[in-house]
Amino acid sequence: MAGSCAYYKWLNRAPSNRETENKELLKAIHLLYNQVDGIYGYRRITFIINRQRMKDKLPCINEKRVYHLMQISQLKVVIRRRRKNTRNLPLIMSQKMY
């Protein structure tokens, strides 16, 4: 068990560079997620963020990092269902045979 001195030191610590960068990334992810109404998954969001970071001369981020941040903030992709095509069925299938 840690002493109370260590707890209060941990409680009042400054956020690390990684934590501040994750907060900025999470803001960018939320912004992009809301712009596309939740259609993009972590791979496409990573691609778009990395393309912007390359323009700004910043290092790229990993897909797993975006995936983890999206899981933490409970962002899930809206799966679009495909409609069944009933117009181009063969003649035998579209008409009942008696």
Number of strands: 0
Question: What percentage of residues falls in helices of 4 or more residues?
Answer: 55-70%
Using only C-alpha atoms, the radius of gyration works out to 23 Å
Structural class: mainly alpha
Major β-sheet annotation: none
Mean pLDDT comes to: 87
Terminal CA distance: 81 Å
How many helix segments? 5
Strand content: under 5%
Unreliable runs, pLDDT <50, ≥5 residues? none
Q: What's the multimeric state? A: single chain
**How would the global form be characterised?**
elongated
Give the H and E element order.
HHHHH
Write the SSE topology.
Layout (H helix, E strand, L loop, with lengths): L3 H8 L5 H19 L6 H14 L7 H10 L18 H4 L4
Helix pairs in contact: 3-4
Give a short overview:
This protein is mostly helical and 98 residues long.
Describe the structure.
By secondary structure, this protein is an all-alpha fold. Helix content is 56%, strand content 0%. The protein is built from 5 helices and no strands. It has helices spanning 4-11, 17-35, 42-55, 63-72, 91-94. The longest helix is centred in the first third of the chain and has 19 residues, at 17-35. 6% of the residues are buried. The mean pLDDT is 87.
